[in-house]
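User: For my dataset I need records formatted as: sequence, then structure tokens, nothing else. Please produce one.
Assistant:
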Amino acid sequence: MCYNCGPSRRSFTTLLAAGVGMATLAACSPDTRVASPTSAPSSSGPQTATPTPTTTTPVPAAAASEPPSSAPPSKAPPSGVLSQQFSLSDPASQWVIVNKHRPLTPLQFVPADLAQPRVQLAVSGEASLLNSTTAGAAEKLFAAAASAGVTMTLASGYRSFQTQTATYNGYVSTRGQASADTASARPGFSEHQTGWAFDIGDGGGACSFEPCFADQPAAVWAKANAYKYGFVVRYPGMLNEITGYYYEPWHLRFIGVEAATDMAKRGIGTLEEYFGLEAAPGYP
């Protein structure tokens, strides 16, 4: 995940275009629709978030576009205005939390409803797929960006356990495990495997998977508006001691419009903070 650790992300651009670029990235079909996230129980026993009222003073939605602070996790549960409850452990749940302390269960989970969204693609093959709920939300997100004059591309979507294994092992063989863990998720610990997350590119192709992507139109627009369509920037700047990864302005994660909007209004930067979970800066 770390963009400043080792080989430049630019060296992987050609692979991305060929549809295998997800094998070089960090951590980050027919259109079918997904069943309710709560319908598939986790084999480890689902941990369910129970929305509760909060007395936290709301922060204007505009605060979502401001650089996040480096404050420690706040143990702030979802707002009581949320009407639904989703598992934090079931990988079929839109609230599943995957980080260095929380692997997928099962490790080789495969979404049952992978679909290719009708958006501009920079990749092919499995990297062009998302679970059907995320695919539908992505179509709305990309269309809204286009209406605002911003061209966005899907740069990396679903990544299988096998692909992530190849990715991680490649880093380990060239850099050693300690360094690899700063740049790539271990197999079974990547959000990309859930189908709920994807990486975006800018229509102009500039700064793909590089720090300067944060200043490209697609990243700027997504940071300010993605919550309206159910997405958050999963790895914000200056919060790597919570998420375990450095700033990735290209990595978007779907959690639903209500939750994403609630996070934006309250100025909460990470899912760990929002759901009151412990920080996960490294593997146990």
